[in-house]
Specification:
The protein is α/β, with parallel strands linked by helices. It contains 13 helices and eight strands. The strands form two sheets. It has a six-stranded mixed beta sheet. The radius of gyration is 26 Å and the shape is globular.
Length: 344
């Protein structure tokens, strides 16, 4: 049994396995050491934990865990959300609700690294960013769909979204007499959907910026080179509590911007960047890196990395540095300042 003296401030230590209908709750009384492992209906969870004193509660960071963490915090409990991959080694038996709840408990008392519990504002920002990412994906798919269809009629469309919007009506109208009317009507409907998606994206972007500007570090993030409104909103959610990451490098690695490595016999080989990350967020950061590379007043470091490395590798390196700079301004709660280099 774990040493409970370090948890004397809490009445109970609780590990919860979340499910849709029933929750499995494994608890240990810090005074008596009494252990229970019971199943509770979803609508009875808050009632059962309302009058049991201040508890330390652990859960896996999964779907609906943020909701339950906020509700339990409102009852006065301390909640830690842990990565399921880090919890799995603590599950000692075959797969079951009881074994999972016990594994969550053991991970909790072992001090497994936790993730931050989002506030309501951060939750809304994350939701809107997810909606925006889906709309951008749908808009891109529809534009490519129309571009491919028009190519069959001899029209080559530009890749830029604004240029596409300016030229597409003229190209579709030119199909009169060449294509059947249904083809023309369907293309016009698709273009209308593209424009509707564009309007929704702009509406979402305005609301995302408004909510993000209510957070404490929003203005600090905008001082980092390459960071715009969208990246700033992502950072407001990810770095609401920068202490969740022990260093700037760990934060960059979390975003998938640090190359993996493998080795044996004292030899270490650096490989490619990982695939297990939020690829949409990494792509946004790389877009910001392209903006930094296009600046007229580039730093010496950016000039050197662009000169020495292939372009794609250099973009990931610049995005890596952007992520580290964001972690730094969030940790110090101040604007980004490039320190001048003085001669010795």
């Amino acid at each position: 049994m774990a040493n409970l003296n370090q948890f004397c401030d809490f009445t109970k230590l609780i590990g919860i396995d979340i499910a849709k209908s029933v929750f499995q709750i494994y608890s240990c009384d810090t005074q008596t050491g009494e252990i229970t492992n019971v199943q509770i209906k979803r609508d009875k969870v808050l009632e059962s934990l309302a009058n049991c004193g201040k508890c330390l509660i652990g859960m896996e960071a999964c779907g609906s865990s943020q909701y339950w963490a906020r509700k339990l915090q409102e009852l006065g409990h301390t909640v830690r959300l842990m990565d399921p991959k880090l919890v799995k080694p603590f599950v000692r038996h075959n797969k079951s609700d009881k074994a999972d709840a016990e594994g969550v408990y053991h991970a909790l008392v072992s001090g497994v690294r936790a993730v931050a519990v989002k506030t309501e504002t951060e939750r809304d920002i994350q939701t809107l960013l997810t909606m925006r990412a889906l709309l951008v994906k749908q808009r891109t798919a529809r534009i490519n769909h129309v571009r491919g269809l028009l190519a069959e009629y001899g029209h080559v469309m530009p890749r830029n979204v604004n240029q596409f919007d300016n030229k597409v009506d003229e190209c579709i109208n030119s199909l009169e007499g060449d294509a059947v009317q249904l083809v023309i009507n369907m293309m016009r409907d698709t273009v209308k959907s593209i424009r509707d998606d564009q309007d929704r994206i702009k509406t979402l972007q305005r609301e995302i910026s408004r909510l993000a500007n209510q957070t404490r570090n929003a203005k600090h993030f905008l001082t980092v080179p390459g960071v715009g409104e969208t990246i700033m909103a992502y950072m407001c959610v990810l770095l609401a509590d920068p202490t969740q990451f022990s260093s700037a490098r760990q934060f960059a690695a979390y975003l998938g911007l640090v190359p993996m490595h493998t080795g044996s016999g004292g030899k270490t080989v650096t490989t490619k960047i990982p695939g297990r990350c939020d690829k949409a967020l990494r792509a946004v950061l790389v877009q910001g890196a392209h903006a930094v590379a296009r600046l007229k007043c580039r730093t010496d470091w950016v000039k050197n990395i662009l000169a020495k490395k292939p372009k794609k590798v250099a973009m990931v390196a610049i995005a890596n540095r952007m992520a580290r700079q964001c972690w730094a301004v969030a940790s110090k709660r101040q604007d980004w300042r490039r320190m001048p280099v003085t001669a010795a």
